[in-house]
Amino acid sequence: MSAQSTIISCGGILYLILVIWLATQQHPPPPESFYLLALNLISIFTAIMMIALFLMNKPVKKIVSDYIFQLCKVKIETATNRTQTA
Hints:
Keywords: Membrane, Transmembrane, Transmembrane helix. This protein is mainly α. It has helices at about 1-25, 30-55, 60-85. It has one domain (about 1-85). Helices cover about 90% and strands about 0% of the residues.
């Protein structure tokens, strides 16, 4: 749980800094590009958190890896059969 909180915190830290900056100093306001960067960071770190959740969940990871290996095996067998019949 700690790793998940850290990942999400990394995404929102710039936005928190911008909110504090705007609350403490009205002039000059933070550049608008910083807000875009903050939203991009939140999106990126949310995706990273989803990947981390997937990697930490061993039963789901095993199911997906078995499915991928089975899918690759079927594709290799199909390709081998095509070359033998040609």
